[in-house]
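Q: Predict the assembly, please.
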Amino acid sequence: MTYPAAFRYTKEHEWVEIKGKQARVGITDHAQAELGDVVFVELPSMGTVVKKGGHLGTVESVKAVSDVFSPLSGKVVAVNDSLESSPEMVNQAPHAEGWIVLLEISDPSEANGLLDAAAYQALIA
Amino acid sequence: MKVLFDHALREGAGGLFPSSDVPARTPSDVLGSDLVRARAPRIPNLCEGDVARHYTALSKLNYGVDDGIYPLGSCTMKYNPKLNEDVTRLPGFVGAHPRADEALSQGTLGLLYELSGLLRGISGMAAVTLQPVAGAHGELTGMFLFKRYFEERGEPGRTRVLLPDSAHGTNPASAAMAGFSVTEIRSNDRGTVDLDALRAELDSTVAGIMLTVPNTLGIFEENILEVTRAVHDAGGLCYFDGANLNSFIGRARPGDMGADVFHFNLHKTLSTPHGGGGPGAGAVAVSQPLVDYLPVPWIEKMGETIRLDWDHPKSIGSVHSFYGNFLVAVRAYAYLLQLGDAGLRAVSENAVLNANYLQERLKKTYPLPYDRLCKHEFVLSGEGLPNHISTLDIAKRLIDYGVHPPTIYFPLIVHEALMIEPTETEGRESLDRFAEILEAIAVEARERPELLHDAPTRAPVRRLDQTQAARNPILTYPFDKS
Amino acid sequence: MRYLPNADADRRQMLKSIGRESIDELFSDIPEEVLAKFEPLGLAPRSELEVLGELTRWAEASDAAKRVSLLGGGIYDHYVPRIVGHILGRSEFYTAYTPYQPEISQGTLTAMFEFQTLVCELTGMEIANASMYDGATALAEAVLMADRIRKRRRVAVAANLLPQFRRVLATYAWAAGIELVDVPFDASGRCAWDRAPHDVSGLVVQSPNAFGVIESLGGLKAALGDTLLIVVTYPLALGLLEPPGAFGADIVVGEGQSLGLPMGFGGPLLGLFATKGEYLRQLPGRVVGRTVDADGKPGYTMAAQTREQHIRRERATSNICTNSALCALAATVYLVSIGADGLRQVAELNLAKAHYLADGIGRLKGVRLAFDGPFFNEFVVRLTEPASAARRRLADAGFLVEDPNELESLGVKNSLRIAVTEQRSRKELDRVLSVLGGKR
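A: Predicted assembly structure:
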């Protein structure tokens, strides 16, 4: 699995793809592999306002629960409903169809504190 | 295996109940038709022989203590004397209604009173309640007691409970249910509480600490007195989880170690069988400052009469419908009478000897992350075996050898943990055989790993698909789809 | 010692093989100061024969078990078919632990799956857990769950809830910081739910309630808006009564003792807990699910475990671990032994006998039913003479009747609560009538 160079990453194993004022968030391939088969994703409500590092949701495998922390501050403008019926997408395509939420970000400068792909891969190596 | 709903329907239950000796009443006339059930529950009507065979067949798919060694760490799966079962069936016990008058309940109340006295003696503490019905229920009761104590002292700001990172999951869950937040204290490299880390957390927001003694690594906190003193000096209370009492019963008492609340697992230490997950009993002993807050009713002796005393205004209230699991208390009482002081001392002696014997032998085959004197249990690691063998594979292969696996993946501070508690009711031959099996499995892990990956193959079912069970939960019989 | 297989010679050899000199050395990690303070119980070991004799004496001193019971209030003198004890006596069931290793626990797991199904069938709900400690703690957990879902920190509770439920609920709610608001009852003995506040997470009603009166639940759910409806039920009555699920209940709990458990001085009991499928992730306690094994063969395993304390720790839906599994097995065997037809029959027997006695009481002077609401097998009698005097006469005639203090605590004066199960004969009931009627 490759870690897209256009994404930014957190030490808590989230990725974020920033396009203008919007940021798509998911968990990394490394995170899904550590968790094992994902069986449930708890999604936030639309419109939830979250601070950087705040609680966005949880990802559950059979025997573990992992929190998803928001990489950036903002408001939830879309959630990936298809994970309700197909949580396995988080395993199969963590950096694509397995995305979790779309944020409208409030402070683009926060992105400066995130890791780039190389730094993230060094972290998990 | 069939579930009962798969069985053909038969004629029904005629003969269990007599026909009515009073005039029959038509339910819809008496109650009005909107209160009467429109559709019967789908419960099959079977012959008694069908029922007997169905559940006998099911029972044979289970493994119990009577089948062999059951070394689940932290669970104290000792042999359960048959006498204890039989005495719970005495008519005076099974037929006692909890609302009957005290004067007519002296046998049942008296037994509870006597048992609390014995438990008080074992704990070395001021008073005992028998109301909690499980270990976690005892913990919750203890956390309620903490809360009431600080309310009464005017210290509502004590909202944090400290827990070592080796704690049972019930500990943080119980603290949270009583409204406390939880702070984890790391263990040191000897597997015990890091005193400096503890002292750094002790401030006026701390309600107290929950400790398992000995801890879930099977290690006795040698600094237990320093730990409890430090907490007391900071104005906090000490909760002792008694899941591991089997390792020191009859020779040391939690009250002498600084415990303020101590819960017994009567269903572990005092031999009551686990029943496939319950019922248990989680009697709680407390130190003098907490006595006033114990759940009501108290069972007290006034002259020659045992009474239920509700008049304790500082009490936390009740935690059970009545007086706890009476029939479990009966078993514990019978067990204590049989053993006496000498028997209790022999229990901890043999439990600890067995564990150390097994630990010494198995550490030559499996990593032992904390290599030191243990109490009644010890924790090996399944890490480092070749061919991607995990602790889960070892556990499942043990099943193929016809023995129950140990507790696995707990405590969390040991990777690939195998937590082994042989108990005092195994003899040396049984321990040797268990060790031989684990040694044989280590050889198989290198030479024939498929035996582990595929295990179990000799159990009633093979490994179950937990992912499917979680993604697509089927929690009741699918009547409409069959 | 009969239960300890190691002989002295074994112990010596084992000590030697671990390089220890003495047993005491095995306890050298316990501080001297602690060991020095130890005091024994002063209890000499006794033989099996002696202990059996001692326990038999305690049991025989339990006079209540020799009387004819008219006691109820959540615990009832129902008949337990003989087969229940025989199945429960199989040590493969009663000496097993919680089914953490499903491959060698299919017996317990299959029975728990059957139990969950039966609880859903009885209550009219979609999912049920594998048991709680008792009805009262099941209710307390239901209230915590409702407040997790609606988060209003207030729950309304019918004032005609049985006091043992109320007491336990009050303790749990206090610790969780949830305020309980009483909802009064009317002259029929039923909850006046139109007087319940709206800004609450849930409303708790019990049916039949502390007076034995069956609540009228039609229309209640619709009137509640998004407040969750929590119903405390009496499962044996559900052989006859429309289940709470049919009235839109969100959570149904109950005391399962009536389903094949002895009264046993009030424990072990069996907490029933059922809810809607949509609330699975908020459900407390263990739950068993059906799946397949590596060969595609059906099997059972614990499911939705991420809710539980061993995984979610302080954020678990409950701290419960040990539950009432063997009692759940008893309830399962009970229900299956009597079947749907037998359950209906036993419920009708309770109804007929209780109404026979109540009708007879209605014809006596100086006694009448306290409430006119419909009842199942339990009702409240209001007396013109002091309740304690009537109770004393019944006691002298060998009947167990409850202390009137509990009804008084609910605001019902000079009254006795009487329960009549299938175990009571017409002869016994006629005797109750003659004692209450003043004939000796």
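The longest strand of chain A covers residues 55-61. Chain A has a mean pLDDT of 94.
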